[in-house]
Amino acid sequence: MITDYLKQVNDNAYIVKREIPIIRFEQKNTNHLNMELAKAYRDWLKCDHVLRTQTHFLFCQTIEEAVIIEDEAND
């Protein structure tokens, strides 16, 4: 079962949709990561941001800052 959770990084908030071990994106027989695969996975999940820990990629959706809209009818 996958449970989304919130993560705050500096002044930004994210909904973490998936945590995937970085090793899953390693190219065989090299020390390089397949970032194109990570981007494709991000897009497939409909995420817009990826955070990285020592061991995992965190595929996230950015929480946009709220905008207050004034109601002109009450002015």
Tally of helical runs: 1
Strand arrangement within the widest β-sheet reads: 1-2-4-3
Strand content: 35-45%
Biggest sheet record:
4 strands, antiparallel
What's the overall average pLDDT, rounded?
A: 90
Total count of domains: 1
SS elements, strand count = 4
Helix content: 10-25%
Describe this structure in words.
The chain has one domain. A hairpin with a 3-residue loop joins β3 (49-52) and β4 (56-63). By secondary structure, it is mainly beta. The chain is elongated and about 65 Å long. A 4-stranded antiparallel sheet has the order 1-2-4-3, with no helix packed on it. The chain is 13% helix and 36% strand.
Q: Any chance you could write out the topology, listing elements then pairs?
A:
Elements: E1 5-9, E2 12-21, H1 35-44, E3 49-52, E4 56-63
Antiparallel strand pairs: 1-2, 2-4, 3-4
Compact summary:
This protein has 1 helix and 4 strands; from the N terminus they run ββαββ. The protein has one helix spanning 35-44, and strands at residues 5-9, 12-21, 49-52, 56-63.
List keywords for this structure.
single chain, 75 residues, mainly beta, four-stranded antiparallel sheet, 13% helix
